[in-house]
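Reply to dn_fold:

You asked what the input looked like. This is it:
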Amino acid sequence: MRAPCGSASCSSRPSSSRRPAPRPPTRPRPRYGRSRPTPSPTTSWAAPTARRTTSPSSSATGRLRQTRTRYSVCYVNAFQTQPGDLGWWKKHHPTLLLRQGGRLVRDPGWPDEVLLDQRTAARRAAVVAVVARWFRACARDGYAAVEPDNLDAWTRSRGLMTRRQTEATARALVRAAHDAGLAIAQKNTPELDGRALGFDFAVAEECEVYRECAAYTDVYGSAVVEVEYTDNGRRAYARACKERAGEHPIQLRDRDVLPRGARGHVSRHC
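and this is what came back:
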């Protein structure tokens, strides 16, 4: 998912083992634009009260500073290829693309994304090495945290990958983020205990729609950024604000996370 920084009040940031964290989302996964030809971190999350906007790439936002009104979180597609980037993976890391019977295994909901192969320790280490470079780029661009997307990719792997393999990859990504001086978010996938894996906060998309917000707040407390989307209607957002406003950042966004000023842009928070 992607989105560059907006601004919002930044009260009570969560804390990480190495760096203070903020909080920022599962199911139909929204897509926020496309990345550059060479895979790289792309956009950022807005701060703790979670206001999201979009930009074409992290470099386009320039060097971002963390302030009392903004906490910038860098989006990275860590478990699948980003739309438009498959050619790069085929050229540079063809063995890291998950295959079954010689055919690439694609996300059925997003067929332009191919799952990354986590089945062996060597392949997990190779995937993490690639993603860790993107984390370091996020840090250089001034982001405070990263949100590695598609943590639940194993559930779409046709049984080729396991939860345990995903957890091993996640732990390595947490170490890579912390080594880069960044906090790291658990992006959706409430069935995993993100705290046990080392995540610092959670990004919970549409948790009110699926009535699973407690799965995050029970683990992370106020260190959650909740995002609801307009194409589900406004009732879920209204309920979320009524029930949890002030407990953690809650945001309403348009599904495409359009930039401010674009037709269809929606960004509200409570």
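Residues 44-78+121-269 form a domain with the TIM Barrel fold (CATH 3.20.20).
Hope that clears it up.
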